[in-house]
Hints:
The structure holds three protein chains of three kinds. Chain A is mostly helical. Chain A has helices at 2-6, 26-29, 33-37, 42-70, 82-118, 126-148, 162-165, 170-197, 210-242, 255-289, 296-309, 325-353, 362-385, 387-393, 397-427, 433-459, 474-504, and strands at residues 10-11, 14-15, 429-430, 506-507, 534-535, 553-555, 581-582. Chain A has one domain (2-507): Cytochrome c oxidase-like, subunit I domain (Cytochrome C Oxidase, Chain A), CATH 1.20.210.10. In chain A, helix 9 (210-242) runs antiparallel to helix 10 (255-289), helix 9 (210-242) packs parallel to helix 11 (296-309) and helix 13 runs parallel beside helix 16. The radius of gyration of chain A is 24 Å and the shape is globular. By secondary structure, chain B is an all-alpha fold. Chain B has one domain: Cytochrome c oxidase, subunit III, four-helix bundle (Four Helix Bundle (Hemerythrin (Met), subunit A), Up-down Bundle), CATH 1.20.120. Helices cover 74% and strands 0% of the residues of chain B. Chain B has helices at 19-54, 56-63, 68-93, 97-127, 147-180, 190-214. Chain B starts with 18 loop residues before the first helix and ends with a helix. In chain B, 52% of the residues are buried. Chain C is an all-alpha fold. Chain C contains three helices and no strands. In chain C, helix 1 (14-36) packs antiparallel against helix 2 (44-64). Chains in contact: A-B, A-C, B-C. Chain A binds chain C through residues 1, 196, 224, 228, 249, 252-254, 256-257, 260, 264, 311-312, 314-315, 322-327, 330, and chain C through 4, 73, 80-81, 84, 87-88, 91-92, 94-100, 102-106.
Amino acid sequence: MATAEATTKTLKVQRFKPSENPTNTYLTDEKGVWAWMTTVDHKKIGIMYLVAVAFFFALGGFLAIALRTKLLTGASIDFIDADAYNQLFTLHGAIMVFFVLVPSIPAALGNFIMPMQLGAKDVAFPRLNLASFYIYVVGAIFTFIALALNGLDTGWTFYTPYSTESGSSVIWVTTGVFILGFSSILTGTNFITTIHKLRAPGITWSKLPLNIWALYATSVIQVLATPVLAITLLLLIMERWLGIGIFDPAMGGDPVLFQHFFWFYSHPAVYIMIVPGFGIISEVISTFSKKTVFGYWAIALSSLAIAFIGFLVWGHHMFTSGQSAVATTVFSFLTFLVGIPTGIKIFNWVATLYKGSIKMDTPMLYVFIFLFLFSIGGFTGIMLGTLSVNIHLHDTYYVVAHFHYVMMGGTLIALLAGLHYWWPKMTGKMYNERLGKVSAVLIFIGFNVTFLPQFVMGSQGMPRRYYNYIDQFAPFHQTSTIGSYILGVGFLIMLYYLLHSLFRGEKAPANPWGSRALEWQATSPPDFHNFGHTPVVIHGPYDYHQPMEEFQLGIAVDTNGHGKDTHVEPDDPELDKWKNYSLG
Amino acid sequence: MANHSSTHPAHVQHHFVDSEQQFDSAKMGMWVFIVNEVLFFGGLFCAYIVFRTWYPDLFTQAATQLDTFWGAVNTVVLIGSSLTVAMAIRSAQKNQQRGLEINLLITIALACVFLVIKYFEYSHKIHIGILPGAENYTFEGIDHPLAHVFFGIYYIMTGVHGLHVIVGIGLMLWIYFRARKGEFGSEYYTPVEITGLYWHLVDLIWIFLFPLLYLIE
Amino acid sequence: MSDNHKHGHHISTPAQLWAVGGALIVLTIVTVLFARVIHLPYPFNIITALAIAFTKAGLVAAFFMNLYWDVKFNLMLLIASLAFFILMVAITLLDTLYRIEVVPSF
């Protein structure tokens, strides 16, 4: 119980001002492909996840562009026939959900940032962390095998009875997702343990960055919900392979039971996707307003509240499935409860902005985009949770627009905010700020042009997942397609300036945004051990009224294999000021 | 914690401050994993409960085909193995090298006995035509159109549990060979304790499977 | 450091372990007797069987898995997992028990 003991003791601390020119960083420590592939360093694993997620995002995005291009006309066109169309939207959904959104923030950014925010050298189980990454890769390979064989046309939800009959490679993909689930489970297990056991001296629960609270809530959902997905997919595989008769009505099973099992995971899973985004928003909004987060505990605990309520509402995906009227009513009522903690968060973020010194850099621009788009996504979610409205809107483009506003306008935009916020820390390079803003604006415009028309055509009755449409919907579909092209251009610009920054970018200072959070008190990019010393924390992560030097305290260590700490500015006149400090 | 310059013992990984923190982390990690396992099997139990509330007759009729005697014997075997694994942990804590090795070997042996009994149960059922899946199921001794559903649930529940037993045997062998190299003692026995926790979980699940599948009346 | 050994490092005596093992075997015999010799009427048969199963599980968790001596957080984890399992079953039953037809025809 190292941390608990430390809080009651007087510690000898010094100031460790991060060097602006680190000589030894995690990028220079071990080089070569093999070193990367076998590394147990959470930072490198985070980067590998980021590359993998970016790859799958590009793939999923390409499929989306293909889909939208087909939908320029309602008629049949040569290069995508109806069967190919079914496969395209299924793969777009499955890839974006399982390979992009679920691992994006926790496994990529979270892996990199979380141990640094805790002042730890690594996650609790570094080898398990690497194993999770390879499990993810194996899951991906199974999905590609499915692609090479017969593809998949069941929709990403694998609903029975179609998934037991479809001629496509359902077993391959479900096996892939089953394997992928273990990656998620192990990451969650690892994160929970790390947050409990590896906090640096002084980081009490009330001094945890809100990003950590969000990742904690996410991990709790991952641990509680993902195993149910695993068993569901196992049962589905058995159903398809042997016909055991649990889900298949032809064998005496109940297809609605499959939906219960599936959504017991997949509804909480949308909170696995969005809650870590909330964490990023809290960090960025505080840093760029130079102000303490308003309602720290409200934001921290509302993450946990969302995690909990998320387990009670899965049946709102099944209002028209034939489940009992009792269940439908209860689910509809419980669904409204989700709005409360989410609303608490939005209000607290807006209150944080109030009278702050707001600086509109790219990450902050994304935060504003997030607040705007996510609010629309949230409100339309409440509408969909309303029983009577849902019967009308069920399985229309309204639903498609809603979840793109939450998942893309929420999670993905938050991911971009985090990516731009931590990019200098991760790579040690600054990206082109002007291009960053241009692409953010393009993405915002493109996104709304794509998805706003979908609300309208959905409410007018355009069903989702349809290959063709009547002329009435043509203008909406065409506008939507043009929007998706604008989005694509926005992402291409981003790809360009991020890659450019890697090779030609300006060197990033240790703390370009003037943040008080612990990860910014390391060098950019950080040392292999994150900090050359053991950080000691005496203030909360958002205490902007305290001087910067009080956030750079630590205890010298000489057992980390690097000899003396080389990451401190030499001859710092302030060094002697901090000999003893009582953590009380 | 207080003294940072103390050198790390060999078994402490670099990112932990001391042995204590490593042990606590490992144990907590295992408990979080147990939470996973509870919900993993929870899905199966949920399917069981739903179908039992729908078709109570099916369950009472079909359960007559399961052999209570061998089910009970297997329960006792698993309880015995839980006891020996607990004794193994105790031996490690007490630096009793021989006790550790012998207890681990007995645990592995009992786990194998469990699987052998399970094998005879399965092969008897397969022999009389009780196979998983509506198409494969040919047994005619149960007068219920959904008899295959019960056995589908039975096979998956016991099958997944059996897989856990096999994984457990693998883990136990790994621990046994490490123990023979003298890696464990009162200072460091984390892997023994963690594997023990896993093995008790396997026992826990069987404690519920036995009455729910074999003792329906 | 010495007070750290209060949790996580409890060493059970062989007598304790054997007593728990013995109790588990006795309970196994009792539950078989209830089901095969003393036939209780429904629903008491299920209640007894589950009560005995939970007692056995409690013994294993408390004394074999050392939860009785461990930090309380690990106990909380186990209880939380059971709570979420019950939640899953209870809410699913809200549907399956109140349907007009058991398996809806399509």
